[in-house]
C-alpha cells in the first residue's frame, strides 16, 4: 500500500468517527444514553470477535490473571469515557463535543507526568494552555456559557486519555490489540446495560427507532474505523497519521453543521482552531524533534 492510500484510509477513519458524533446525538431522541452505549458496544464486541479468534491462534503466550485485570481496567476507563461523552451530548453540541473530546491528545502526556513520573516534551505545557484557551473561546469568552455537557466532555477526554495510557501499556505487554478491544467493548457493554436496566425505560420500539445509529456506531465507528486505523498506520509516518486522524474533530463539526444545523460565533471557531493546533502540536513537535536527532 502506498503512503497516499494509507493516509486516505486514515482520513476515512476520521470521517467515520466524525459521523459517530452525529449518530450519538440523534440517537438520544429515541433511546436513553446508557441503553445506546450498551447496545452500541455489544454490537462492536460481536464485530471484533472473529478477528480476536484469528489473533489468538497466532499468539505464543497465554494471558495471565494480571493481563485480564489490566483489560478490565481498560474497559472501565472506556465505559467512563463513553458515558460522560454520551451524557454530555444531551446538553452540548456535536461541534463542542468533537473538539473537546480531542483534548485527550493533550491529557495523555499529562497523565504520564502525574502518574508515571515521566518527563514530558516541553511542548505539552504551551499546548495545555492553548487547549484551555480554546475551551474559553469556545464558551464565547465567558465560562458561564459552558454547559454541563461541555464539562462532562472534558471529563470524557480525561477518561479517554486514561484508556489510551492503559491500553498502550497492555498491548506492549501482551501483543493483543484485538483481544484488548473486544474485552473493553464487552466490559463497557455490560456496565452500560446494567445501568440502563436500573435507571432507563426501554421498549422494542425505542431500539428500532435508534437502530440505524446503533449499527453505525457499533459496526463502523468501533469495528471498521479501528481496522482502517491499524492498517493505515502501518504504511505511513506518525506525524502524517496524527494529522489525518485529528481531522475527526473537523468532520464532527462539519457534519454537525450540515446535518444538524449547528452554528457558532467567531470566538467559537477561534477556540476550535486553537484546540486543533494544540492537538497537532503535541503529536507532531516531538516527532519532528526525534527525527532531527536521529542519524540520517
UniProtKB/TrEMBL annotation:
<feature type="transmembrane region" description="Helical">
    <location>
        <begin position="243"/>
        <end position="261"/>
    </location>
</feature>
<keyword id="KW-0812">Transmembrane</keyword>
<feature type="domain" description="EamA">
    <location>
        <begin position="6"/>
        <end position="139"/>
    </location>
</feature>
<feature type="transmembrane region" description="Helical">
    <location>
        <begin position="151"/>
        <end position="171"/>
    </location>
</feature>
<protein>
    <submittedName>
        <fullName>Threonine/homoserine efflux transporter RhtA</fullName>
    </submittedName>
</protein>
<keyword id="KW-0472">Membrane</keyword>
<keyword id="KW-1133">Transmembrane helix</keyword>
<dbReference type="Pfam" id="PF00892">
    <property type="entry name" value="EamA"/>
</dbReference>
<dbReference type="InterPro" id="IPR051258">
    <property type="entry name" value="Diverse_Substrate_Transporter"/>
</dbReference>
<feature type="transmembrane region" description="Helical">
    <location>
        <begin position="214"/>
        <end position="231"/>
    </location>
</feature>
<feature type="transmembrane region" description="Helical">
    <location>
        <begin position="66"/>
        <end position="87"/>
    </location>
</feature>
<feature type="transmembrane region" description="Helical">
    <location>
        <begin position="123"/>
        <end position="139"/>
    </location>
</feature>
<feature type="transmembrane region" description="Helical">
    <location>
        <begin position="267"/>
        <end position="285"/>
    </location>
</feature>
<keyword id="KW-1003">Cell membrane</keyword>
<dbReference type="InterPro" id="IPR000620">
    <property type="entry name" value="EamA_dom"/>
</dbReference>
<dbReference type="GO" id="GO:0005886">
    <property type="term" value="C:plasma membrane"/>
</dbReference>
<feature type="transmembrane region" description="Helical">
    <location>
        <begin position="178"/>
        <end position="199"/>
    </location>
</feature>
<dbReference type="InterPro" id="IPR037185">
    <property type="entry name" value="EmrE-like"/>
</dbReference>
<feature type="transmembrane region" description="Helical">
    <location>
        <begin position="33"/>
        <end position="54"/>
    </location>
</feature>
<feature type="domain" description="EamA">
    <location>
        <begin position="148"/>
        <end position="281"/>
    </location>
</feature>
<feature type="transmembrane region" description="Helical">
    <location>
        <begin position="99"/>
        <end position="116"/>
    </location>
</feature>
Amino acid at each position: 500500500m502506498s503512503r497516499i492510500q494509507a493516509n486516505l484510509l486514515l482520513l476515512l477513519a476520521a470521517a467515520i468517527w466524525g459521523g459517530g458524533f452525529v449518530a450519538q446525538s440523534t440517537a438520544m431522541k429515541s433511546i436513553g444514553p446508557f441503553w445506546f452505549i450498551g447496545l452500541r458496544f455489544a454490537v462492536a464486541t460481536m464485530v471484533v470477535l472473529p478477528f480476536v479468534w484469528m489473533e489468538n491462534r497466532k499468539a505464543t503466550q497465554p494471558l495471565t490473571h494480571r493481563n485480564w485485570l489490566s483489560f478490565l481496567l481498560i474497559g472501565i476507563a472506556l465505559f467512563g469515557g463513553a458515558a460522560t461523552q454520551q451524557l454530555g451530548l444531551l446538553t452540548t453540541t456535536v461541534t463542542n463535543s468533537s473538539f473537546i473530546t480531542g483534548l485527550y491528545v493533550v491529557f495523555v502526556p499529562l497523565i504520564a507526568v502525574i502518574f508515571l513520573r515521566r518527563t514530558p516534551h516541553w511542548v505539552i505545557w504551551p499546548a495545555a494552555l492553548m487547549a484551555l484557551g480554546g475551551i474559553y473561546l469556545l464558551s464565547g469568552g465567558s465560562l458561564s456559557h459552558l454547559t454541563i455537557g461541555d464539562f462532562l466532555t472534558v471529563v470524557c477526554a480525561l477518561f479517554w486519555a486514561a484508556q489510551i495510557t492503559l491500553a498502550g501499556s497492555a498491548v506492549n505487554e501482551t501483543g493483543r490489540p484485538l483481544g484488548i478491544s473486544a474485552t473493553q467493548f464487552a466490559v463497557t457493554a455490560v456496565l452500560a446495560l446494567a445501568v440502563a436496566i436500573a435507571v432507563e425505560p426501554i421498549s422494542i420500539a425505542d431500539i428500532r427507532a435508534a437502530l440505524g445509529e446503533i449499527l453505525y456506531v457499533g459496526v463502523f465507528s468501533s469495528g471498521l474505523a479501528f481496522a482502517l486505523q491499524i492498517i493505515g498506520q502501518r504504511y505511513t509516518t506518525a506525524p502524517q497519521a496524527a494529522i489525518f486522524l485529528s481531522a475527526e474533530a473537523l468532520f464532527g463539526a462539519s457534519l454537525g453543521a450540515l446535518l444538524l444545523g449547528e452554528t457558532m460565533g467567531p470566538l467559537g471557531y477561534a477556540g476550535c482552531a486553537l484546540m486543533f493546533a494544540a492537538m497537532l502540536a503535541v503529536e507532531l513537535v516531538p516527532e519532528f524533534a526525534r527525527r532531527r536527532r536521529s542519524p540520517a
